[in-house]
What we know:
Distance between the termini: 35 Å
Helix content: over 70%
Radius of gyration: 25 Å
Structural class: mainly alpha
InterPro entries: SLAC1/Mae1/Ssu1/TehA, Sulfite_efflux_TDT, Voltage-dep_anion_channel_sf
Shape: globular
Order of helices and strands: HHHHHHHHHHHHHHHHHHHH
CATH superfamily of the largest domain: Voltage-dependent anion channel
Subcellular location: Cell membrane
CATH class of the largest domain: Mainly Alpha
Largest sheet: none
Keywords: Cell membrane, Membrane, Transmembrane, Transmembrane helix, Transport
CATH topology of the largest domain: Glycosyltransferase
Membrane topology: Multi-pass membrane protein
Main location: membrane
Number of helices: 20
CATH architecture of the largest domain: Alpha/alpha barrel
Low-confidence stretches: 1-27, 444-457, 463-503
Strand content: under 5%
Amino acid sequence: MDESRTSKSGCSSYDAMDLCSTAAPKRKRSWALLSGLPRKREAVRQFTPSWFTVTMGTGSVAITLGTFPYAFTGQQAIAWAIWWLTALLFVFFCIMLLGRAVLFSSTLPHLFRHPNQSLFLGAVPMSVSTLTNGLVLFWIPRFGAAAGVAAHAMFWVNLPGVLGCILLVPLFMFTRHEHGLHTMSALWLLPVVPACVAANTAGVLASKMADSGHALVVFYLGVCLLGVGFMLSHQICTIYYSRLTFHSLPARELIISSFLPVGPMAMTAWALLNLGTAGGVQLEAYYSKHFDPTIDVQWLHDVAVPMAAAAAAGLGLFLWGYATWWLLLALASVGTCLRKGIPFNLGWWGAIFPMGVYTGATAQLGHAAHSNTFLVFGAIATCAHVVMWLVVIVLTAVNAWSGRLFHAPCLSQSGAVQQAAAAAAAAADGGTAAAAAQIELLRVKSGVEEQLQQPATPGDVLHKHGSGRHAGHHQHDDVAAARPCCEDEEAAIGRNAISGFLV
Length: 503
């Protein structure tokens, strides 16, 4: 194991270089399905909501290709096929998650109590919103009004999931999880961004609805969701900026999460453009239909609608610039880690969806402002987005086939945490130095076991290690020498273990 990997694991903090450098026995590579797992059922048990980032990213590719600024032969057919791939993957992932809930129901509490894996629940409603956008984009031109009704129904079916994520997951963060600025990452955005994505879907859907009354209900709801999603996302981005300032960049395994702040800012810009268009069109249609026809509503067409579109474009450009700053920062952050290498994990999908959103917002700005510059830039960004997706989906397919990506951090930690809690309780009751040594060994063992799980998952790395700079503040050279001054630390370990995972 290379030096950078060891430093991130935190094992050197406990004078356990020998344990960190001990690799698992190399197995002969096998191309059999799930050969990296002891049992096939383990893939269901180890399935996590982070897999839904695959459908988010793949769906965003379908949307950006379907709205590519410059038409080419086979464009809609390719985008249509990728949308179907997204739908099939989503159904498969739902079956896997349902299988875990039914066959391994005892593991679900660990998922909800894990401070990082639970955040990925937001990927489920975002995937549904992406599929709904595809219904509007690909199905309505092919199947007409029936597809519009299906998209409308899917929007309302997805709404409880969106509201549940933006309300309940943060509540769990406040009441059940333990977080610190040094362990904070852009993953905190995942539970609140579904509101922005659903708002964009509301704009896309409302502009295509025939009933202006129903369309305005969707429009108003979309505006409310966008307000909640953007304001919460902006606050989290502010905290993330502070985290970067005081504790440096995240660990290499988490560095791809630097792209996540691009998502809500670009999505808000995109949603504003779509909501501005939908609001103008549907308000004009509603007033023309439901008010006295003798009243002149031409002012809506001549004044209100153009003003709404211009305001949306101006605010969209404002937020697009903000998203561009986060994108450049993410690229620079990833560039600092390229020399040491970035291990592949599902967290790589954290760059695909934000990049797709940024690409879509860029192209939409080009159409709204009639700017060839934005259209060309959007086309270039789309090509880069597709290349990124191809690389990541191939790596995902290879590692998923072998079973290496099926690893639930909430399950790998639960056993070690229970033992650590028991040992800490014994030490608090007047245990000997052996109890302290046992705690220290369990802490080292917990970190090593996770490092030996290849590839490491973003939630795992974040929860156990935090940032590299912060890890250096907790080095202990000698367990026995530190024994007289570590009683409080031992008790804290027990409390953290019990409150974070067992309560």
